[in-house]
UniProtKB/TrEMBL annotation:
PROSITE patterns: QOR_ZETA_CRYSTAL
Keyword Cell division on entry: no
Superkingdom of the organism of origin: Bacteria
GO molecular function, one term: NADPH binding
Name of the protein this chain belongs to: Quinone oxidoreductase
Chain ranges of the Enoyl reductase (ER) domain: 11-321
Keyword Isomerase annotated: no
GO cellular component terms, A-Z: cytosol
Record-linked InterPro entries: ADH-like_C (IPR013149), ADH-like_N (IPR013154), ER (IPR020843), GroES-like_sf (IPR011032), NAD(P)-bd_dom_sf (IPR036291), QOR-like (IPR047618), Quin_OxRdtase/zeta-crystal_CS (IPR002364)
């Protein structure tokens, strides 16, 4: 027997329940992982409140790392004792769990389990955003919203390593300092400054070629107004709610702009894509160019408080849940 966080209905943090579960042996194609760290992500909140439907009753969370305890029939390439991580398999809020081997990645020696749990989902997100959705190059100036968040800090590091100039939005002087310490060149405190005016000032009135926006509804128009003609808005999250009711003609009026709403799953749809994306991230981590920015740790049984703090903007960087 082991313990896991489960939900029996959607709702606020109070629906998260710490329960004893009976875990069967891994089925064919699965591996059993005793987890040492679980990553906290906004998608977990979306699962809890019903924005992203998941089977109920059941577990939630999509990212973790640990050591394989057993393998199911037909599994090749993994064995008990292997250090592994995964991202995308629902049910991560557990001490021990079974995961499809197709979702699991072996960890290189230079990447710890805790760092993997803190960075795999966010780091692969950064990889597809800045290397494939819009391929940022040296000398490019980018605007990255929530620069002091879990994805933002990894993005600032990676973008800096690419030679890009990074403008990041933050909500406090403390978060501005953190973003700058992780490679952000200029910060905009959106509680005190006008984002569009500051971006125009910092780019001599031109705007930026790309904006990465995980905020959603509250920043959509602002992000469009920060773009230069034919620029791209990469909207990859909705912490303030989904963007809807958009008049596509606005894109023409504001300079023949592009808008895309990518998701990680479309970029790691095959095993080869998953391995290549993770390998790029792990290589950056082993080279010291991308480092896990773990701002806080909670016991897994306290996941409700962790989610509440994340939603309230009280966290910085990545958050780890410890089984």
């Amino acid at each position: 027997m082991s313990y896991a966080i489960r939900i029996h209905q959607t709702g606020g943090p109070e629906v998260l329940k710490w329960e004893e579960v009976d875990l069967p042996a891994p089925a064919a194609g699965e591996v059993m992982i005793r987890q040492s760290a679980v990553g906290l992500n906004y998608i977990d909140i979306y699962q809890r409140d019903g924005l992203y439907p998941i089977p109920i009753p059941g577990g939630l969370g999509v990212e973790g790392a640990g050591v394989i305890e057993a393998v199911g029939a037909g599994v090749t390439g993994f064995k008990p004792g292997d250090r592994v991580a995964y991202a995308g398999a629902v049910g991560a809020y557990a001490e021990v769990r079974n995961v499809p081997a197709a979702s699991v990645l072996a960890l290189p020696d230079g990447v710890s389990e805790e760092d993997a749990a803190a960075t795999l989902l966010k780091g692969m997100t950064v990889q597809f955003l800045i290397r494939r959705t819009y391929a940022v190059g040296a000398g490019d100036t980018v605007l990255f919203h929530a620069a002091a968040g879990g994805v933002g800090l990894l993005a600032c590091q990676w973008l800096s390593a690419l030679g890009a100039r990074v403008i990041g939005t933050v909500s406090s002087p403390e978060k501005a300092a953190l973003a700058k310490a992780n490679g952000c060149d200029e910060t905009i405190n959106y509680r005190e400054e006008n984002i569009v005016e500051r971006v125009r000032d910092l780019t001599d009135g031109a705007g930026v070629p790309v904006v990465y926006d995980s905020v959603g509804k509250d920043t959509f128009e602002t992000s469009l107004d920060c773009l230069l003609p034919r620029g791209m808005l990469v909207s990859y999250g909705n912490t303030t709610g989904p963007v809807d009711g958009v008049n596509i003609g606005v894109l023409a009026a504001k300079g023949s702009l592009y808008v895309t709403r990518p998701v990680l799953g479309a970029y790691i749809g095959t095993r080869a894509e998953l391995e290549a994306t993770a390998a790029d991230l792990f290589a950056m981590m082993e080279a010291g160019k991308v480092k896990a920015s773990i701002g806080q740790r909670y016991a897994l049984k306290d996941a409700a408080k962790a989610q509440a703090d994340l939603a309230a903007g009280k966290t910085v960087g990545a958050t780890i849940l410890r089984p």
